[in-house]
Design goal:
Length: 104
Amino acid sequence: MRVPVMLFLVAALFGCAKPAPPKPLSEPGEKVYALKGTIVSRDAGEHSLRINHEAIAGFMEAMTMDYPVRGVSMEQLPPNGSKIEARLHVHDDKYWLTDIRKVP
């Protein structure tokens, strides 16, 4: 009888937890780069896009990799296969994209 009560209490505790606040679009000390590429796929659970991007001058070679996205819901982003431009933010060992827009 104690197990169902404990499970109920744990479920109630997690059910009342507040969602994490959104991460800021920028952070002090970050570097920002222009990114151009194509959306290959997306992971809604990780809130990230897999981008096949061009070389980023002064930062990295052309490659395909996953980037977390900040400031926009996944539904608002261009569809897979779209050519995009975005801002790549880099701070210490963190990186993320903002200002993602479809280009012709």
